[in-house]
Design goal:
It contains eleven helices and 13 strands. By secondary structure, it is of the alpha/beta class. It binds adenosine-5'-diphosphate. This is 2-dehydro-3-deoxygluconokinase.
């Protein structure tokens, strides 16, 4: 059976419930995608490629990976570092703000663990997903090792998937991000950009231009997300526009794109058509944004996806 791996950072999430209480969970773009894929498609093996620490929260995070049935072959434990952490605060009018403690997180040192021997465990036909956030969190000193790994995996027949999630504060300059993203586009077999991310870095403000931009790198399957607007795809010489039904009661848009990515990729691995995959992915994203936080409750999520025909 082929596997799909998600490379990047999973963080400890703290949410202030009131002045004296915090609720703790785990989240991070690639982790969110892996969870939603695995929940919808138990027949596929999804795994994390990340580094955590040996502290109590890292142990709890690994337990959570197991609880979500994620493969942990490539989850490493750094002996001196701990996971990144962020706090969500919601003000009196419901506006959310985030504070991060992630500048020395264990995941930044992931490349220390990905030796050639470890890389050799990836098989032809496996897939590896990276996001713009994955690229940003790997220490700049280790990025050349990441590019070598990706090139090596691609040459061995591993499918590379890229979502250029852009978080300005994680980069020292826009030029640094542009260079890294262009290199990732060059390697990608499948790209799942959001228009918003491309707009800031490349001045691309609509889905058609996003498709054209990705085509210039020879990417074979391109899926452009644009919030509640339609999704535009390109593959096998065919451009398709997929309508999205806007959700009227949006609670929290965190991880809409992540849920979309995970479910789209799972559906495609199971040989669903591009239109079916987009519709399932849009249902997943539309469900997730009706719940607070990155990870929607499993039962409600599953019920919506069963109704949608997974
Ligand atoms: P990101 O979270 O990466 O910024 P988008 O905002 O483009 O991604 O949203 C990803 C997907 O989530 C969209 O393609 C769409 O399927 C779904 N989505 C986002 N906002 C809405 C909405 N208001 N109503 C319905 N679906 C939405």
């Amino acid at each position: 059976m082929n596997k799909i791996f998600f490379l990047g950072e999973c963080m400890v999430e703290l949410r202030a419930i009131d002045d004296n209480t915090m609720e703790q969970s785990f989240a991070g773009d690639v982790y969110n995608s892996a969870v939603y894929l695995q929940r919808c498609f138990p027949g596929i093996k999804a795994g994390m490629v990340t580094a955590v620490g040996t502290d109590a929260l890292s142990e709890k995070m690994i337990q959570k990976f197991h609880h979500e049935s994620l493969d942990t072959t490539f989850v490493f434990q750094h002996k001196d570092k701990v996971p990144g952490l962020y706090l969500i605060k919601t003000d009196a009018v419901g506006e959310r703000s985030f504070t991060y403690w992630r500048s020395d997180a264990a995941a930044r040192y992931l490349m220390d663990f990905l030796s050639d021997d470890v890389a050799g465990l990836f098989k032809t036909g496996d897939a590896l997903f990276i996001s713009g956030i994955s690229l940003a969190v790997i220490t700049p000193a280790a990025r050349s090792a990441l590019w070598s790994l990706l090139e090596q995996l691609k040459s061995r027949g591993v499918t590379l998937i890229f979502d250029p999630n852009y978080r300005a504060r994680l980069w020292s300059s826009t030029d640094e991000a542009i260079t890294a993203f262009q290199r990732a586009f060059q390697l990608a077999d499948i790209a799942l950009p959001g228009v918003e991310d491309l707009e800031v870095l490349f001045g691309i403000s609509n889905a058609e231009a996003a498709i054209e931009y990705c085509q210039s790198f020879g990417i074979r399957e391109i899926v452009v997300k644009n919030g509640p607007e339609s999704v535009l795809t390109y593959a096998n010489g065919q451009l398709q526009k997929h309508p999205i039904t806007p959700v009227t009661k949006v609670v929290d848009t965190t991880s809409a794109g992540d849920a979309f990515n995970g479910v789209y990729l799972g559906a495609r691995i199971q040989n669903r058509s591009i239109s079916d995959a987009v519709q399932l992915a849009a249902t997943a994203a539309g469900t997730v944004i009706q719940h607070p936080g990155a990870i929607a409750p499993a039962a409600a999520f599953r019920a919506a996806m069963v109704t949608a025909g997974i």
